[in-house]
Amino acid sequence: MVQLPIHSAVRFNHPRFTGGPAQECILNELFLRQAALNKSKPAIITLDRILSYGELARDARSLATHLRRLGVGHNTPVAVLLAPGIEHITAQVAIILAGGSVAPLDVRLPDDRLADVLRQWRVSFTLTDAASRRRTLGTANIILEDIAVGDGNDLDFNPMPAWAAQRTHLLVMAQTGWPANRELGARGIVDQVVNRPDMRVNSDDRVACLADATGSTYQLEVWSALLNGAAAVVLPQDLVRDPGRLTAALTQFAVSVHFVAAGGATA
Question: Which pTM value belongs to this model?
């Protein structure tokens, strides 16, 4: 496993949080704890929609039930071919609750490139949407619109028992889309976004999620919010690349935390 890159948490007019002792539970347990504590609070905010922690936990558990029935279990790689946003994050949470590993893909890449990546990762399933139904990737495409998520089928679902060595993500190299032979694990993510005193995020925060969804920085942004009861504010890349619109959006959504890569560049 590799560590997430070193980043700094930049706060916007928000007091520094001084929390208690480091969390000891593993990623899926910690997420479910935050979901129970913050049921009605926003978990994900996009330009078009807000999803609460209660809704996210319900939908993710429902999708995880479906994945478990397909055979997803310990470290099973499942690709995610979705634009960043509510569905993408819900898919991530569901795969991890089922015990699998998230393999995020860039929807802009051609089918043959994606198929090569999936073969190298030995992926059998790709979570995607109806718009990508006919893409030929060499895997079984699981279409989100075809799954009755949130219909109560998760009531008897028990998350895969958490273990520190769980592989949560398989990552590609930035800019190229080729496998980077990089993996993230449950303990590593928790250590980075919960246990590091210089990376404290609290439940009143809103964390900007601006990075490429295929890389480690995006996982840092998303999970720093979800594992601390904060809201993940996901903004589209066309907006992120426009300084004026980005500044307005950060103000509009009251973003209080933005991660930047070492050296000051936006990650």
Answer: 0.86
